[in-house]
Amino acid sequence: GAGVSQSPRYKVAKRGQDVALRCDPISGHVSLFWYQQALGQGPEFLTYFQNEAQLDKSGLPSDRFFAERPEGSVSTLKIQRTQQEDSAVYLCASQGAANEKLFFGSGTQLSVL
Amino acid sequence: SQQGEEDPQALSIQEGENATMNCSYKTSINNLQWYRQNSGRGLVHLILIRSNEREKHSGRLRVTLDTSKKSSSLLITASRAADTASYFCATEGSGTYKYIFGTGTRLKVLA
Question: To which H or E segment does residue A19 belong?
């Protein structure tokens, strides 16, 4: 595709609801990253995939957060039983080769009420 | 937690002036990248500098890297109002794949 696509662009959830955020990386990109960005802060690493393998999930804040990339392309970040502190922008990035630049999507802004 | 810290946190300059932002990090790295983020949008890659490089240029951008001090600087020359954005450094730690972002510098260029 032309770029990294994320959906939905905005998501409002009631506390306790489950949400699923989708990322379509650039076609052929092996690496995929998820980041969480709070207002006024820098992006915080959540997890990293190389093809379908989740090689690093050290940044996931709790076991309510789960990410998958079953076929090595589209990825989904799922948050169960959302809490107010989960409100943030969730950014996805893909990378064509190691040690090269990241291409970011526009993010999903999650608001938990 | 974030590895990088940027300085200053906020910077306000007049159009035509130069803007300098600094980034410090904590561990050894493979490379360091600078990104720009307009309000409410995704991050856009500006420039990548590898650990064995000391300086790189791209248009009005100049980046330096000092691995002995674990620091980098981004210079934007002849700034324009359109350069108004937040700027972040991101480091790829040696032996890791993940990129750790700094806290960002919010640049405002006044016309």
Answer: strand A19-24
Contact of B32 with B72, CB cutoff 8 Å: yes
Please give the Cα distance from B59 to A38 (Å, whole number): 31
Tell me the C-alpha to C-alpha distance, in Å, between residue B109 and each of B59, B80, B104, B105.
18, 6, 16, 13
Judge: B104–A4 Cβ closer than 8 Å, yes or no. no
Q: Give which of A26, A99, A111 to mutate to test B binding, by max B Cβ within 10 Å.
A: A99
Give yes or no for B36 touching A (CB within 8 A). Answer: no
> B50 and A99: CB-CB below 8 Å?
yes
B3/chain A closest Cα distance in angstroms: 10
Task: Find out whether A81 and A64 touch, Cβ atoms under 8 Å.
Answer: yes
pLDDT digits (tens, 9 = 90+) for B5-27: 888 999 999 999 999 999 999 98
Q: Report CA torsion sign: B105, A107, A103, B97.
A: positive
pLDDT tier at B50 (50, 70, 90 boundaries)?
A: very high
